[in-house]
Amino acid sequence: QQMDAEINLILNEEWIDIDKLRQISINRGLSSANARRLVWPLFLNVSLNDAEVSKKTQQNTAEDVAPTMKTRTQIHIDAIRSFNELNFYPPLQQRMREDIEKLENKIFGNQQRIYYFQGYDDICVIFMLIFGEKNALPLLERISTTFHLHNHESSFTTLIKHLNFLFPLISLYNLPLFRLLEETGVASDFAVSAMISWFAHDFSQPPYRLAQRVFDFVIASQEPLAPLYIVAAMMLQKESFEKFFQIQQGEFSADFSQTHQILRKMITKQPHTPELMISDYPNKSNSWSDAQVSLGR
Q1: Domain parsing of the chain, residue ranges
Q2: What is the pTM of this model?
Q3: What pLDDT score does 219 carry?
Q4: CATH topology of domain 157-294
Q5: Which residue has the higher pLDDT, 87 or 31?
Q6: pLDDT > 60? residue 234
Q7: For domain 64-152, which architecture applies?
């Protein structure tokens, strides 16, 4: 309630201090769905004025272009599995699945240059629960055509390049951990779902508090590598890397497959508070360039 009051004070100023809202969202997170309904559209520069949204919806309906059959089929399959964690009245749950399928078909019909991927529905779930189908549409279209665009390419080539920054980023803060990761020969693909779904696939337990906290951070920063910084921060938590050292340097060290699973659990284990994920995330202004240098780019 105190944070909502602080947000309202900023929003009621003659000139809204977007930078201040960004700092709150990045450093502390927003405290409620209502705050997110007010602030996320500002970060994304999307107006949710009823008249404008209705006009856009009517235009989209009149000009609707269906996505490819392959895309529609995958959207349908994923929609059937969505909202499984919510113990809603079955007819309501079915209605929500139909709504998310309709929403995704609109997005990928309207935006023919982007590609659907499994895990996108997890992002849509968060937006639909906060904004509803109608208002979620322009927000998701904005995200998918801007700083999330690299995940909508025909292949994950750019995503893999981004993942290749993870271990050099780790090396800037914990060189022994970096060396141990290099020795195992494991790749950074254990972080794929965290990157493409902004942890929504991994933190999928209602009321989605952790996933929404990650979204606060990513949407406020609008940095394509933002989820990667959270992955790095979770791996750099003392409890996580000490346990990894104990396993790898013990009498029975983990093999390649086991190491992959250990690292996956390391970044998907839900902390007691979302701040444990974000409070010590690496300073991006330095780490981005330093990681590029480490990779020789």
Answers
A1: 64-152, 157-294
A2: 0.86
A3: 97
A4: Cyclin A; domain 1 (1.10.472)
A5: 31
A6: yes
A7: Orthogonal Bundle (1.10)
